[in-house]
Inverse folding.
């Protein structure tokens, strides 16, 4: 080998050895107060201020804990970013977890057991903890249990000469058929009818806020059998399809809709959206989801906080979470995140923390919703299931779609993923 | 005395050996390697090492949440061969890349020829067509997302002309076409500038001689322009083919791979598998496939250059 060749090989070898050593080096033992990091998806200043206040209070009695950082990650790619951090060897100590990835996090054993650490865990509403439990153990604290309701632009309803939903509720007529008639009438006057926030013809799990009224489910309770082509689901989806393409009471795919600007009659959304109506230029109301053929129902969206087993400070993180979630702090957090503690689920307590909503709205939508609600569909491997079902549902969003055939197609695609 | 002589002799011999080893070519080589070492370090750390790791990961089963990392042999490659979605993914990739490359190169060359004319306002149009290259990719795509809505700006313009536009991002063929057009309009300026530079390097006397011989515009383009700028055509086609296989942000923002799987091209599918579905081993296998496709296409173009690139023997 020529001299230059030998030098090249030598340089490369040295470089690779340096790289390999750099990777395998051991970090020096940590000294002094240990920092904690919690990944969250809110960057709302008021939320962060409250979190920091709770953390500062905790540190006063726990000098061994250093800075507690709340690390916001954008909502759209939250779970993807979180798992990439874990894969990259940089996991947070604590993490908010969305309901749709709960089965993956809880089932994989990625989280630290919490039941014995959470103060008065027995008062957590069972409907709110079901998703976060396995074999009787609690793996995440359900810090936000937010029911879906219907925000109504009562000005648009009135202008279309329709009865407002609250009147229909008193008459026992608040159901999807009547809701559709109102939206059809408003749409005929050139405004948008009803929309389901975040659905956008992609996030189909939000349609559970409608199909639950027909008693439909995405899959069986044991998660093993697809139920998209069950008669209840076909009826519910036929209703949605007719609303979009025949009645025009629901804006079609590819249409930009914004309830909060005042050009849409009704929006199915979680109650936390009430904050966006602070400066609304129109009159609005919040009512429960309309009844379906199977009667009244409620759907809730959830978020839990878990401690990652991979965290080198898992014990400190668990201790902090126990403090963060105690009854006193849960009452403070209830200002923004509906609690799952039954002692806090009273109209009087909630009224103090949710000034945008009145007593009736809190009782009907929030308190009843949390106690009776069904959580949006969640399954192990949800991301792949969601994507596969989204692709299979796309043919439904065309005027000429054969609803039953499309839903049969959805089951054909997702059944192998359900493991049945 | 004897001991001193021996010591001197050893010292002289060692100095001679050092002088013999550090010959001028060796010193030159050392200086050369030191000069390229920053680039070399970068290439090893950020190209070769990740490439090697991707191949390594493709033989593993990595469950990020459970924290397991196990050797899976050729399991991921067997899964690749049996994946029922691969047919659709590769079809979308072929249509997307072919559409993008043809449209980009044709439009870039056409614009370059038009802007190579000695006419008023050409500087303004050159700037106009090149400016999208400088715009943030995601911002550009988000604006187009609004324009391509059912009731967006594109259909608004078509409506003025009495044409009812389709729901661009919701139809399978129109969604693919939309992503191609958004990408072409964004990047056509770069190829246009390269073509323009090449066109300005073609000796004018060749055109004058051809004109004297009675050659028409098409013949001059085919017989003079194309051969003369063929090295640039080779360069732009390699860049565009490779680039077309790496388009990700536009799909992530505009369609997320839909409707159906019509815009799920290979790079987006591997993102889904690796990061959304957390099948990191399989995602790495798809990355190896993408690397092989890019390498094969580049090699093919490089080999074929002898047949059509002027100045190449």
């Amino acid at each position: 080998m020529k001299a230059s060749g030998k030098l090249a090989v030598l340089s490369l070898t040295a470089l690779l050895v340096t790289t390999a050593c750099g990777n395998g080096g051991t970090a020096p033992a940590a000294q002094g107060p240990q920092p904690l990091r919690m990944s969250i998806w809110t960057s709302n200043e008021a939320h962060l201020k409250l979190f920091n206040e709770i953390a500062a209070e905790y540190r006063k009695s726990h000098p061994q804990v250093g800075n507690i950082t709340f690390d916001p990650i954008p909502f759209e790619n939250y779970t993807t970013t979180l798992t990439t951090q874990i894969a990259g060897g940089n996991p947070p100590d604590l993490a908010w977890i969305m309901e749709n990835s709960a089965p993956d996090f809880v089932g994989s054993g990625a989280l630290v057991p919490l039941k014995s650490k959470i103060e008065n865990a027995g008062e957590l509403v069972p409907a709110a903890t079901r998703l976060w439990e396995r074999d009787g153990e609690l793996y995440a604290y359900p810090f936000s249990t937010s029911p879906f309701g219907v925000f109504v632009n009562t000005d648009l309803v009135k202008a279309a000469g329709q009865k407002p939903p609250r009147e229909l509720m008193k008459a026992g007529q608040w159901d999807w058929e009547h809701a559709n008639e109102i939206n059809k009438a408003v749409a005929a006057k050139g405004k948008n009818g009803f929309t389901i926030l975040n659905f956008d013809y992609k996030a189909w799990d939000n349609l559970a806020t409608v199909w639950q009224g027909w008693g439909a489910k995405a899959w069986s309770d044991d998660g093993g059998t697809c139920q998209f082509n069950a008669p209840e689901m076909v009826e519910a989806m036929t209703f949605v399809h007719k609303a979009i393409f025949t009645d025009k009471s629901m804006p079609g795919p590819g249409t930009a809709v914004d309830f909060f600007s005042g050009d849409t009659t009704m929006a199915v959304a979680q109650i936390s959206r009430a904050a966006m109506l602070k400066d609304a230029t129109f009159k609005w109301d919040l009512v429960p989801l309309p009844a379906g053929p199977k009667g009244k129902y409620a759907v809730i969206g959830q978020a839990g906080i878990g401690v990652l087993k991979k965290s080198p400070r898992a014990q400190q993180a668990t201790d902090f979470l126990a403090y963060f979630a105690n009854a006193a702090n849960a009452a403070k957090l209830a200002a923004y995140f509906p609690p799952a503690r039954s002692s806090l689920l009273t109209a009087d307590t909630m009224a103090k923390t949710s000034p945008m909503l009145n007593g009736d709205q809190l009782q009907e939508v929030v308190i009843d919703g949390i106690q009776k609600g069904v959580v949006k569909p969640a399954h192990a491997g949800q991301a792949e299931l969601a994507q596969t079902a989204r692709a299979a549902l796309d043919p439904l969003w065309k005027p000429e779609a054969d609803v039953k055939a499309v839903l049969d197609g959805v089951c054909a695609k997702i059944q192998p993923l359900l493991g049945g | 005395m004897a001991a001193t002589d021996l010591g001197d002799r050893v010292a002289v011999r060692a100095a001679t050996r050092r002088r013999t080893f550090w010959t001028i070519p060796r010193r030159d080589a050392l200086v050369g390697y030191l000069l390229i070492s920053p680039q070399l370090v970068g290439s090893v750390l950020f190209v070769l090492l990740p490439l090697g790791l991707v191949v390594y990961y493709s033989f593993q089963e990595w469950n990020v949440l459970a924290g397991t990392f196990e050797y899976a042999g050729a399991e991921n490659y067997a899964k690749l061969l049996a994946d029922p979605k691969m047919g659709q993914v590769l079809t979308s990739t072929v249509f997307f890349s072919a559409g993008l490359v043809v449209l980009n190169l044709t439009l870039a060359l056409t614009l370059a020829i038009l802007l190579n004319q000695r006419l008023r306002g050409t500087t303004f149009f050159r700037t106009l067509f090149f400016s999208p290259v400088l715009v943030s990719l995601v911002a550009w795509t988000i604006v187009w997302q609004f324009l391509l809505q059912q009731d967006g700006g594109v259909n608004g313009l078509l409506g003025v002309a009495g044409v009812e536009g389709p729901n661009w991002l919701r139809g399978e063929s129109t969604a693919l076409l939309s992503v191609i057009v958004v990408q072409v309009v964004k990047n056509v300026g770069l190829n246009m500038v390269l073509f323009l530079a090449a066109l300005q390097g073609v000796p004018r006397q060749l055109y004058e001689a051809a004109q004297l011989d009675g050659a028409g515009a098409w013949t001059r383009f085919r017989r003079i322009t194309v051969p003369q700028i063929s090295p640039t055509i080779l360069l732009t086609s390699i860049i565009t083919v490779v680039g077309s296989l790496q388009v990700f942000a536009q799909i992530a923002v505009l369609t997320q791979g839909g409707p159906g799987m019509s815009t799920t091209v290979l790079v987006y599918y591997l993102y889904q598998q690796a990061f959304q579905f957390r099948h990191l081993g399989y995602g790495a296998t798809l990355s190896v496939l993408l690397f092989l496709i890019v390498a094969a296409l580049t090699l093919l173009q490089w080999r074929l250059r002898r047949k059509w690139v002027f100045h190449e023997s």
